[in-house]
Write a structure and sequence with these properties.
The complex is a heterodimer of chains A (247) and B (506).
Chain A lengths: L1 E10 L2 E11 L4 E6 L5 H9 L6 E6 L2 E2 L5 H6 L1 E4 L11 H11 L4 H15 L3 H4 L8 H13 L5 E5 L7 H18 L2 E5 L3 H7 L2 E6 L2 E6 L1 H6 L4 H11 L8
Helix pairs in contact in A: 3-6, 4-6
Chain B lengths: L1 H15 L9 E6 L2 H16 L4 E8 L1 H10 L4 E5 H8 L7 H10 L2 E3 L9 E6 H7 L15 E4 H5 L4 H8 L6 E4 L1 H10 L4 E5 L3 H5 L2 E4 L11 E6 L2 H4 L1 H7 L8 H13 L5 H13 L10 H36 L1 H16 L2 H14 L10 H24 L3 H9 L4 H31 L12 H10 L2 H29 L2 H7 L1
Parallel strand pairs in B: 1-2, 6-7, 6-8
Antiparallel strand pairs in B: 3-10, 4-10, 5-8, 5-9
Helix pairs in contact in B: 1-15, 2-12, 2-14, 13-14, 15-16, 15-18, 15-20, 16-18, 17-18, 18-20, 20-22, 21-22
Classes of the chains: A alpha/beta (247), B alpha/beta (506).
C-alpha cells in the first residue's frame, strides 16, 4: 500500500539516504534498525512527507505524493516520536483532538473517538485533562499514540517510541503497544536501535547501514542467512548484553 | 479566534479614539521659555475675549520647530523676535522691517508691528558696582580695562556676540571667561566677575538688581517682539486677529521684565496668572485663571503621557508582532527587518522628530503641540525593536520536536502558526512587549521636545530653570508609571501565556 521507489535524500554534503526501494504491505509490522546515523530516521521522515526526497517517488494506495496533497497524506499516517512531541500549551485531550478540531469534526464524534482511544491505550479519563508537564513519561507516550491514531490512519509510524522511557515503564509500554498494534491491524513502521524491540514487534526487520537497506526479512532470516557479516555482528552485539532474554 | 479579533479591534479603538472632539478655532503656540509662554497665554486670552475659542500649545520647542508648526498649520500664531526672524528663519541679517514682512509673506506668514519691547543681548553689572564706577554705557567700559567679564558660552561663540562686540567698541579687556548662564548671576553677585551678558527682558535683572549698560554704539541687533500668524487667519477669524493686534506697541521692556520675574520667582504664580493680570490691568479683560494644584497638574500630565503611550504603543504591538513573524518565516527578509528596527533605535529622538514633521504634515495630522502625531510616530518606531526581536526569537526557538510533531499531524501553516507556534512563543513575545512598554513609557518624555506634554514637560522646564523639584515632578511619576506598566504585564501573563506553559516553567 505504501511504496518508495528510488527515493534518496542528502543534507548538504551528507548522504542521509541512498536510492532506496521499499514496499510496505497492509497490516504488516516493519521495524527499521541500524546504528545511529544509518539513515533510519531520514527514511521515516521522507516516507511521512516531512522531508522532501531529492529523487524518487512515494506512492500511497497508487497515488503519488506531491506538494499539493502532502498535508492530507500526512493525515492518513499516524506519527509518534520519541518523547511524544506533545504540545506543552495544550491539555492531553486538546493534543489528541487538535487535528480533528482543525478538520471541524463534530464535538460528539470527537468525544466518542477519544473514548475509544483512551480505552485502547488504557489511560484514565482524568489524565486527559492534565497538561503534558503534569504527566509521566509513559502517560505522555500513551497520549502521543492516541494523538497519532485520532484520525484512524492507515499507517502508524513510530520513531523510537520508547527510547526516552526508563526500563520498567518501557517494558510495560512495550507489552501494551504490541497489544494495541495487534488490535488495530494497521501497517506499522517503527524505527528503533534496539534489536530486542525489533524482534519483539517485527513481522519484518529492515536493517540499514550508511543510508542503504542492507537486508530486509524476518528476524530468523537475518540470523540464519545474513547477506553481510555486519548483519550478524549488529544483531549479536546487542544479544550479548542480555543473552537469556528471548522475547 | 473570535476572542483575538475582538481583542485587536479593542486595541485599535483604544489607540485611536480621540480624547476630545473639540477643535479650537485659533491655535496659539509658544517657544520654550517663560516670556514666550506668557505672551502665548496673553494671545489665548485675547482670542477668548473676542469670543473665539483658542487653545495654547505650551513650549513647543525652539525657533525651527515652532516656525515649521506655523507653516504646517499646527498653530496659527506665536510670538517671535525680529532678530531671530532675520538670523534663523530668513537666514540673512537684514533687519529692515518691511523687507522681512515681504519675505515672510512669500512663506504665507504675516508679521505684526512690534509689541513694544526689545529682548536683545546686553551687558549687565550689579547696580552698586556700576554706580560706583559711574558706568552707564558700554563705551564707559573703555575706562575700566581691569574689569573681569563672564559670558555665557553661546554669547562667546555667536557672530553677534562677544567677538564682534570687542572690535566694535575696541574693548581692551583681557579677562573673559565662558560659563553657564545661570551660574553667571551667582558669580556676579559674589564678585568673582564684574560684567555678564543678559537678555534685556531677563527676569533676573530685577531679582539681582542689575544695571543694564546702554548699547550706545548700536552694536546689538534688535530683537523686537512681534506676532507671526498665518495669512489665512484674518479671513477665518477677523475678530480674533483684531483682538490679538491690540498687543502691538503695548508692552514695555520694564513691564516684560516684571512679568517674567513674577512667573519665574514668585511662588504659586504661573504664566497664565501673569498674563491674565497684565491684560486686566492694561485692557480691563477679566479672566478666571484656574488655580492648578500639584495634583491637578500631575493628573493632566499623566493623561497627556498615557495618551502618547496608548497611541504609539498599541499600534506598535500590532505592527511588530507580524513583523517578527515575517522575520522568522522568511529568514532573508528577516535579516532586513531586524537590521532596520535595530538602526531606528540608534537615531536620536530629536532627529527622528524633525524627520517625521514633514511626513506627519503631509498626512494632515497634528505635528507639534498636544496630540502630536510626530511624537507618536517616533515612539511607535522606538517600541518596535524589542517586540520584533522577541517574536522572532520565540518562533525560531521552538524545539524541533514540536515543529516536527505539528508538521506530521498534517496541520496547515496558518493553523500551525496560530495554534502551535504563537502559543509556544507567547512567553517570549510577551517579554518583548513588556520591555517595549517600559521603554515607551520612558521615551514618551520626548514628547515634551515638541510640546506634546506629558511627564517630559516638567523635566525639560526643570532643567531650563535649574529647578530640581520640577524635574522630580516629571521623573518620579514617569518611573512609577513604568513600574506600574511592568506590573500590569506580569499580571497579563496569566491571560496571554497558556497555563500548560506556565506549569512547565516551574
Amino acid at each position: 500500500m505504501l511504496e518508495l521507489v528510488g527515493v534518496s535524500k542528502r543534507y548538504g554534503s551528507l548522504r542521509a539516504l541512498c536510492e532506496t526501494n521499499l514496499t510496505f504491505g497492509a497490516e504488516m509490522v516493519y521495524v527499521v534498525v541500524g546504528t545511529s546515523g544509518c539513515g533510519k530516521s531520514t527514511l521515516l521522515k521522507v516516507a511521512l512527507g516531512l522531508a522532501r526526497p531529492d529523487s524518487g517517488t512515494i506512492t500511497f494506495d497508487g497515488i503519488g505524493i506531491n506538494d499539493t496533497n502532502v498535508l492530507s497524506y500526512r493525515q492518513k499516517i499516524g506519527y509518534v516520536i520519541q518523547d511524544g512531541g506533545l504540545f506543552p500549551h495544550l491539555t492531553a485531550r486538546d493534543n489528541v483532538t487538535l487535528v480533528a478540531r482543525q478538520l471541524k469534526w463534530k464535538s460528539d464524534r470527537i468525544a466518542e473517538r477519544v473514548q475509544v482511544l483512551s480505552q485502547l491505550v488504557q489511560l484514565p479519563d482524568e489524565a486527559l485533562d492534565r497538561f503534558p508537564a503534569q504527566l509521566s513519561g509513559g502517560q505522555q507516550q500513551r497520549i502521543g499514540i492516541m494523538r497519532a491514531l485520532m484520525l484512524d490512519p492507515d499507517v502508524l509510524m513510530l520513531d523510537e517510541p520508547l527510547g526516552a522511557l526508563d526500563p520498567l515503564i518501557r517494558h510495560d509500554l512495550q507489552v501494551d503497544l504490541k497489544r494495541i498494534i495487534q488490535q488495530l491491524g494497521k501497517t506499522v513502521i517503527m524505527v528503533t536501535h534496539d534489536v530486542h524491540e525489533a524482534a519483539f514487534f517485527a513481522d519484518e526487520v529492515i536493517l540499514m547501514r550508511d543510508g542503504q537497506v542492507l537486508q530486509q526479512g524476518t528476524m530468523e532470516q537475518l540470523l540464519s542467512a545474513p547477506v553481510d557479516p555486519f548483519v550478524t555482528r549488529f544483531i549479536r552485539a546487542q544479544r550479548s548484553v542480555l543473552p537469556q532474554e528471548a522475547s | 479566534m473570535i476572542r483575538w479579533i475582538l481583542f485587536i479591534i479593542g486595541m485599535l479603538f483604544l489607540a485611536f479614539v480621540p480624547l476630545s472632539w473639540q477643535r479650537s478655532k485659533v491655535k496659539v503656540g509658544s517657544k520654550k521659555f517663560t516670556e514666550s509662554v506668557i505672551l502665548g497665554e496673553m494671545l489665548r486670552i485675547l482670542c477668548d475675549d473676542a469670543g473665539v475659542s483658542a487653545q495654547h500649545s505650551w513650549e513647543i520647542g525652539g525657533t525651527k520647530l515652532v516656525f515649521e508648526a506655523l507653516r504646517n498649520g499646527d498653530i496659527d500664531v506665536y510670538p517671535e523676535y525680529t532678530g531671530t526672524i532675520a538670523q534663523e528663519i530668513l537666514g540673512n541679517s537684514t533687519v529692515d522691517f518691511a523687507a522681512m514682512q515681504t519675505a515672510l509673506q512669500e512663506l504665507g506668514i504675516q508679521m505684526s508691528q512690534p509689541l513694544g519691547f526689545n529682548n536683545t543681548y546686553a551687558l549687565g553689572m550689579t547696580r552698586q558696582h556700576a554706580d560706583a564706577l559711574q558706568i552707564k554705557t558700554v563705551s564707559d567700559l573703555l575706562r575700566h580695562p581691569q574689569l573681569r567679564f563672564g559670558f555665557s558660552n553661546e554669547f562667546v561663540d555667536r557672530e553677534d556676540g562677544w567677538k564682534n562686540l570687542q572690535s566694535h567698541y575696541e574693548l581692551p579687556h583681557q579677562e573673559v571667561t565662558g560659563l553657564d548662564h545661570d551660574l553667571a548671576y551667582k558669580q556676579l553677585e559674589l564678585g568673582a566677575i564684574d560684567v555678564i551678558d543678559v537678555y534685556t527682558t531677563d527676569a533676573k535683572i530685577n531679582s539681582y538688581d542689575l544695571a543694564v549698560l546702554k548699547d550706545d554704539l548700536n552694536y546689538f541687533p534688535r530683537y523686537d517682539a512681534v506676532l507671526l500668524y498665518r495669512d489665512d487667519l484674518p479671513d477665518r477669524s477677523p475678530q480674533a486677529v483684531r483682538s490679538l493686534l491690540r498687543l502691538q506697541g503695548a508692552i514695555s521692556e520694564s513691564e516684560m521684565i516684571d512679568a517674567n520675574s513674577r512667573a519665574e520667582t514668585e511662588a504659586d504664580v504661573s504664566e497664565p496668572r501673569v498674563a491674565a493680570d497684565w491684560l486686566e490691568a492694561r485692557f480691563g479683560i477679566v479672566t478666571e485663571v484656574k488655580r492648578e494644584t500639584l495634583l491637578a497638574r500631575l493628573l493632566q500630565r499623566t493623561i497627556e503621557h498615557l495618551d502618547l503611550v496608548r497611541r504609539s504603543f498599541l499600534p506598535a504591538i500590532l505592527l511588530a508582532v507580524p513583523l517578527g513573524i515575517a522575520a522568522a518565516k522568511l529568514p532573508r527578509l528577516g535579516q532586513v527587518i531586524l537590521a532596520s528596527v535595530g538602526i531606528i533605535q540608534t537615531i536620536p529622538a530629536l532627529a527622528l522628530l524633525v524627520l517625521f514633521m514633514p511626513v506627519v504634515a503631509a498626512f494632515g495630522l497634528v505635528g507639534v503641540g498636544l496630540g502630536s502625531s510626530t511624537a507618536v510616530a517616533a515612539l511607535l518606531l522606538y517600541s518596535l525593536l524589542p517586540i520584533v526581536r522577541n517574536t522572532h526569537a520565540g518562533l525560531v526557538g521552538i524545539s524541533s520536536h514540536h515543529r516536527e510533531a505539528a508538521l506530521a499531524l498534517g496541520l496547515p501553516p496558518t493553523f500551525r502558526l496560530l495554534h502551535i507556534e504563537l502559543p509556544l512563543a507567547s512567553r517570549s513575545v510577551l517579554a518583548g512587549i513588556k520591555t517595549a512598554a517600559v521603554i515607551n513609557v520612558g521615551f514618551a518624555t520626548l514628547g515634551a521636545l515638541i510640546g506634546a506634554g506629558g511627564y517630559g514637560q516638567p523635566i525639560l522646564k526643570g532643567i531650563r530653570l535649574n529647578d530640581l523639584s520640577l524635574i522630580l515632578q516629571g521623573a518620579i511619576p514617569a518611573a512609577i508609571l513604568a513600574l506600574a506598566v511592568q506590573a500590569a504585564f506580569e499580571l497579563a501573563e496569566r491571560w496571554f501565556v497558556p497555563k500548560g506553559l506556565r506549569l512547565s516553567q516551574t
